Amino acid sequence: MKRRECITLHGGTAAWPLAARAQQRERMRRIGVMASLAADDRVAQIRNGAFLQGLQQAGWNVGRNVSIEYRWAGIGEAARRHAAELVALAPDVILAGGSQAATPLVQITQTIPVVFVHTPDPVGSGLVSSLAQPGGNATGFTQFEYGIAGKWLELLKEIAPAVTRAAVIRDPAITAGIGMFGAIQSAAPSLGVEVSPVNVRDPSEMERGITAFARFGNGGLIVTASALTRSRLLGIARSTRQSRCRASAPYRAPGSLTVIRQRVRGSAASVSVAEWSVDKSSQSTTSPTS
Predict the structure, then answer these.
(1) CB atoms within 10 A of CB 72
(2) Cα separation of 138 and 119, whole Å?
(3) CA dihedral 135, 141, 145, 148 (to 10 degrees)
(4) Please, which residues bridge with residue 215 across strands?
(5) Which residues of 200-209 are buried (b: 16+ CB within 10 A; e: fewer)?
(6) Angle, nearest 10°, between helix axes 233-240 and 203-214?
(7) For the chain, what is the total number of helices (H) and then of strands (E)?
(8) DSSP 8-state secondary structure symbol assigned to residue 192
(9) DSSP classification of residue 58
(10) I need a labelling partner for 59 at 20 to 30 A (CA). Which of 84, 210, 253, 282 fits?
(11) Angle at which helices 99-108 and 77-88 pack, to 10 degrees?
């Protein structure tokens, strides 16, 4: 072998590890995203935009070094189906929005890392062993504790002192729905309010329950936080338009509602107190007292 060819061969061989490392750095990673909300939900779009912005700031660009597989509106049976589909794709990590998305994921896989957000009780939901030592393949963030639900009742009473009855709209199938109702029950006696649950699982049953509750005076509504309650805000508002019940909720109402709102500053969750009525002439949310 000629000297020049030998140098070229060895030089190329020495460059292989460098090229391999460069390729490894740019290897396409895959992220699975499972959300409880629908893809066209305004809040879901805002959250996804913030997620993509955060990825980009960290050096991850969709199409260059990362790809994202989405599954939207993962509630009930759809959640289990979406979880199985994402796990079958073997992504490097899965982002789960809410306990209803995260729970089936950790049941199906014990190897793919799962990062959960918007989950008020990851321990009670069985996602982690403890907050200090999560263990397993799941970790994430919790935005508030159950005690904040008692603050929603306090706020309702502050805005409408005549309220002596409160219907708590909650999802009884998740630990958060049970825990938040318990916190409201604990706060109720000191505020002189009688509370009763209205389950959100069946839309017709929920609307009948709200209508029956609203027939009597001095009543108010508390909408607890879950993907189901959020998806049915419009139905809740329609059920109360005749009585104009006062209501507190941990998120903005849909765009087809006229809302009178006040916010709790400095708390872990924003709370709106509203008189809800359907505004058929407008598709925007107004906040005259915000």
Answers:
(1) 19
(2) 12
(3) 180
(4) none
(5) beeeeebbeb
(6) 30
(7) 9, 12
(8) T
(9) T
(10) 84
(11) 50
Report, in this order, helix, strand and coil percent for the chain, each rounded to 5: 40, 20, 40
DSSP secondary structure string for all residues of 99-117? HHHHHHHHHH-SSS-EEEE
Q: Which amino acid is at 82?
A: H
Q: How far apart are CA 41 and CA 47, in angstroms?
A: 10
The model carries a pTM of 0.67
Pairwise CA distance, residues 169 & 20, whole Å: 56
Cα four-point dihedral sign 190, 196, 199, 204? negative
SS3 169: strand
pLDDT at 42: 85
Token representation of residue 286: 């107004």
Q: What CA–CA distance (Å, rounded) separates 226 from 219?
A: 22
The pLDDT profile of the chain, 290 residues, written as one tens digit per residue, is 444 444 333 444 344 444 444 555 568 999 999 998 889 888 889 999 999 999 999 999 999 999 999 999 878 888 999 999 999 999 999 999 988 899 999 999 999 999 999 888 888 888 998 878 888 999 998 877 888 899 999 999 998 899 999 999 999 988 888 999 999 999 999 999 999 999 998 888 888 888 888 888 889 999 998 888 888 887 887 776 656 677 777 766 543 333 333 333 333 333 333 443 333 333 222 222 32
Hey, what are 121's tokens? 């009780």
Other Cβ atoms closer than 10 A to 246: 22
